[in-house]
Write a structure and sequence with these properties.
Largest sheet: none
Organism: Saccharomyces arboricola (strain H-6 / AS 2.3317 / CBS 10644) (Yeast)
Keywords: Ribonucleoprotein, Ribosomal protein
GO molecular function, one term: structural constituent of ribosome
Protein name: Rpp2bp
Order of helices and strands: HHHHHH
Number of strands: 0
CATH topology of one domain: Arc Repressor Mutant, subunit A
InterPro entries: P1/P2_N_sf, Ribosomal_P1/P2, Ribosomal_P2
Number of helices: 6
CATH class of one domain: Mainly Alpha
Distance between the termini: 25 Å
Oligomer: single chain
């Protein structure tokens, strides 16, 4: 993902076709290590695909046809509540504990 982000930054910075060296310099400028094999893989996957706007538009079409996340979880929660209220309540409490970051020792904005 960091390689794609670096590629997109370079394109937005008016570098129409970023090279491996360009992407590597962006990645290393923030103190991260760059894997040239992964960069080459990214560039080869984008090769011949057209403009960045066309690639993004094609990806948006794919996302539009994907099912929405959470719809099955909501149905399962409703079925659980109908079958056994106490069990569903306990499950909700467990999920709330799992989602809480209190047990990790830090929060998002600490």
């Amino acid at each position: 993902m960091k390689y794609l982000a670096a590629y997109l930054l370079l394109v937005q910075g008016e570098n129409a076709s970023p090279s491996v060296a360009d992407i590597k310099s962006v990645i290393e400028s923030v103190g991260a290590e760059a894997d040239e094999a992964r960069i080459n893989e990214l560039l080869s996957s984008l090769e011949g695909k057209g403009s960045l706007e066309e690639i993004i538009a094609e990806g948006q079409k794919k996302f539009a046809s994907a099912p929405a996340a959470g719809s099955s979880a909501g149905a399962a929660g409703a079925a659980g509540a109908a079958a056994g209220g106490d069990a569903a309540e306990e499950e909700k409490e467990e999920e709330a504990k799992e989602e809480s970051d209190d047990d990790m020792g830090f929060g998002l904005f600490d």
